[in-house]
Amino acid sequence: MMGRSYAQSRNYDYGRTAHNRVSRLSPWIRTRLLTESDVVAAALARHALSSAEKFVQEVCWRTYWKGWLQHRPSVWTAYLEQRDQDLDRLTADPSGAAAYEAAITGQTGIAVFDAWMAELLETGYLHNHARMWASSIWIYTLGLPWALGADHFLRHLIDGDAASNTLGWRWVAGLHTQGKTYAARASNIETYAGDRFSEECGPGWRSGLDRLATGITPVAGQANPPAGALPEVSSCPDGPVGLLLTEEDLHPMSLVPTGTQVTAIAGLCLAGARSPGGAGQPARTFAEGAVQSGLDTSASYWSAPATSLSAQPDPVAQLCTWARDHHLTDLVTAEPPIGWVRPHLEMLRIRLASQGGRLHYLRRDWDARFWPHARKGFFALKKQIPDVLATLGLGR
């Protein structure tokens, strides 16, 4: 599902047991158990770029969101502040709290929305089109704060990441592209998901669709700040290093320079830091399994001892102890994008520095080539795709 058939059928939501018209690779790409380069290379080994164009663009959308947020970290900070304020308001607003509870448990009476919420909780996955419909209904029909919807998705999606999730919700709300919103329409849902729901829910599947908001207006909120410079990263040091793996990037074999002397490896899963409410079971289970898989593969590749660390009660202290026990001065890790993992690694950098140690962030060539084109809208990056792929040895 990477060629023309993908482009023709990717917008159809066929249901939780039939998401076979899309690749479903996003959880593995998000954690980089599969890298973007490898996935695109596989597509282009089977199809011309013209045939695989839509699939490649969808891979690059995730890159665009990450790069855009790297240029504007304050947008993530503003989301966290808005989320916490909205959560606090629920305690003083019984009717709002009841509406929120009905939404997250799928008890709104809008049959399609309730089915999507049940699927999210049970599987940790939603078709991309369903995510757009559900977020639009959440904001405009149910009248709930967008940041609470973003938090709910982030807690439960097995492929959830800070950039794609936050900016996707901001886009639906009319905050990412000023004045441009996304409206869930009954006719659109019927076209692209009608077969699913007529089978799952029977004749009553249209229940509540007549409630969908019309004439929607953008949500008030923070305008986009100007793009800043990308964070600086370092090169891999000479001599022995310790390797730190997190759920942000679990394919160090294609990142750490050949010949690097990796003497010890640590894996740390911080899925619970996604939200004050932690992470849903499917999301947590996937993230923990992904980190363990990356840890096992890396240990075999470098023939180095591997340690799985706990996120509780103090992951930074555990990492410092691990580094000391293995007599490590230099640690390397994939550059953490803006999100919930990066603050922990920044604290680690500070604490290591106070003890004479260093934590080095390594940036992938894929990100280094694409992120400079993510300062504005997606089109600016999109038109660079053929040339960037060529510089990476892909596509031409």
Helix/strand layout:
Elements (H helix, E strand, L loop, with lengths): L3 H6 L16 H5 L5 H11 L2 H23 L1 H19 L2 H11 L6 H13 L4 H14 L4 H11 L5 H11 L13 H16 L39 E5 L16 E7 L12 H22 L3 E4 L5 H11 L4 E5 L7 H13 L3 E5 L2 H6 L7 H5 L2 H7 L5
Question: What key phrases describe this protein's structure?
Answer:
single chain; 396 residues; alpha/beta; DNA Cyclobutane Dipyrimidine Photolyase, subunit A, domain 3; Rossmann fold; 3 domains; 5-stranded parallel β-sheet; 17 helices; 52% helix
Uncertain parts: none
Main beta-sheet annotation: 5 strands, parallel
User: For this structure, what is the CATH homologous superfamily of the largest domain?
Assistant: DNA Cyclobutane Dipyrimidine Photolyase, subunit A, domain 3
Q: What is the overall shape?
A: globular
Strand content: 5-15%
Order of helices and strands: HHHHHHHHHHHEEHEHEHEHHH
Number of domains: 3
Mean pLDDT: 95
* Number of contiguous helices: 17
- How far apart, in Å, are the first and last alpha carbons? 21 Å
What is the level 1 CATH name of the largest domain? Mainly Alpha
Strand order of the largest sheet: 3-2-1-4-5
What is the second-level CATH architecture of the largest domain? Orthogonal Bundle
Strands, total number: 5
Rg result: 22 Å
